[in-house]
Amino acid sequence: MPSRESSAAYLRHVGDLEGNAGQQAAYNSCGHCVVLAGPGSGKTKTLVLKLARMLAEDVRAPRGVACITYSQECARELGRRLEALGLRDAPNLFIGTVHGFCLRHLLMPYARFAGIEVPDPITVATTRQIETTFTRVAENLLGINQPYRLHHMGKYRRVHLDRDLPDWMADPDLARITIGYERALRDAGLVDFDDLVIQGNRLVNDNDWVLPVIAARWPILAVDEYQDLGLPLHRIIHRLAFDGGVRLFAVGDADQSVYGFTGADGGLLLELGQRDDVECVRLQLNYRSAGQIIRASELALGEARGYRPHDPARQAVVAFVERPGGLKDQAAHVVDNLIPEALAEKPGRTLGDIAILYRAAPVGDLFADALAAAGFDYIRVDNAAPYKKVGLTSWIEDCAAWCSGGWRRGRPQLTGLIQRWTGFRSGRVSEIEERRAARVVTEFLFRHRGDDTPAAPFVAAIRAELVDPLSAAEPSLADQREQVRRMGVAFAPEGRLVDLDLSSLGGRDGSPQHVNMLTLHSAKGCEYDVVFMVGMDMGAMPWAKESEAELSESRRLFYVGLTRARDAVHMLYSGWTIDRYGRVRRLGRSSFVEELEVRLKVEGI
Ligand SMILES: Nc1ncnc2c1ncn2[C@@H]1O[C@H](COP(=O)(O)OP(=O)(O)OP(=O)(O)O)[C@@H](O)[C@H]1O
């Protein structure tokens, strides 16, 4: 519930919704509600305010609201926005990924009563264990040159949920590999992330008794970025909401569905919005981007959605930049010219207002080198990052932010850090234990305050004193241990981040001193003043030989990139790429860029 001292912030934000009938309708909804809306239309803002309202008015602890997000980063962003309203982590508010929800709130409490086959304690396999198990099983079954990759099996498992139906054998080899792989993992006492959701789906769909139990604990379920969450979660939601009486509040945008390759399907969101028992709200006003960017994004998508800018007078730049010397040339131009120009254009603009977006991590390597050589700091969110942001690693980063000066400004708040810490435990925590934990964390953080100190000893100490003992003892953190271990490796003597200082670790997210470098996929949900979309060449955007469905998904990815910008988008291309065999392919610039420039010219923009 919003606390007294900060309810002014809550009321001010609610006041923002007044001029927007759609946001109001969603905020006032009483039953199932789905918000379908374009980029920058305030879906997240509406969701956060609705969460605050539902917690204050519609449920009473220990009953609560579970909010499922696509990634841990989205969960962290929601947590931050709630904290700004005075609503901190509370035991009756779950914000986390679908895997976290299935692990903590479906499988751990109920799997054994339903005869669901998961190891006890539930232990999530590391990436390496998953890869070696897959390779061993697939090669045993089909020989050393077998054609399947791990991601083929992943998608197959997520899309073919009903193994009694003939469809399960649509690809008999993949079905056999899946069975063998799951058996091998189970024999080793392990599950993987997909298991958590697949078994969670089995639990709720095969056991009527579990529905009222879950509904009693979580009478309200909220879902962010619904379009990215895939069939297993859709089935779980369907069952809980429409058979189990759980109230649903979901937000999403099918045009931003970019995880089809994992089995996600934007159509599931639209299907939900068409139900008679669901109030469907559409938001048309874009608060983020200036008019030219909104129009360019619709032209890039090839669909007229009728989105309007909140402030029609604002002007934007949509620029097409050719750099014939390839990616290095693009990187040099961005670093030497475009970033300094962007900083000079608007007083108060910082590096943190700028993002470089690319399709694949190796492109990021080139840009990272160019930024480092020019003395710019950056934050990188892609697969080349040394560890992923999960609850515990994000908590360590936020503790670093507090220790390196955050304590002076109260950002992040110490109470929030402590509450997140106690929230990592799945069982009931007594008041005495809670007080003890608060004391231990507070003492640790006070001892480690310091601005220019290196981060490595801090990471080693917080792991040794707090995080490792907790994660070893707490089964519900099984899905996060691997990332904490990887974080430790990155800060070990030979690690990639060994030279990072404490404030940079704390500022790895949303820091004004760092340029943001993200893959287009990771950029979902983010916004920046100026966006550089780099490597916009045929063979990369789209990839060579994409199917029709893949091409549509690439187009949506391009759309996601464009719509991150408030004031300016620069699209950089060279007209050629290097393929995976090292050959130069002169296929011209991206067809999306080509089309967009022509369409904008026709409209005189
Ligand atoms: N009613 C409003 N009044 C003023 N500003 C608003 C309002 N609604 C949203 N905004 C602002 O618009 C921006 C975009 O909002 P938000 O991030 O919630 O959009 P979104 O729909 O989740 O975007 P995306 O799908 O692109 O991630 C934010 O800066 C937010 O504060």
TrEMBL record:
Protein known as: DNA 3'-5' helicase
Organism: Falsiroseomonas tokyonensis
Annotated binding of ATP, by residue: A37, G38, P39, G40, S41, G42, K43, T44
Catalytic activity: Couples ATP hydrolysis with the unwinding of duplex DNA by translocating in the 3'-5' direction; ATP + H2O = ADP + phosphate + H(+)
UvrD-like helicase ATP-binding domain span: 16-290
Gene Ontology molecular-function annotations: helicase activity; hydrolase activity
Catalytic activity, EC: 5.6.2.4
Enzyme class: isomerase
Keyword ATP-binding assigned: yes
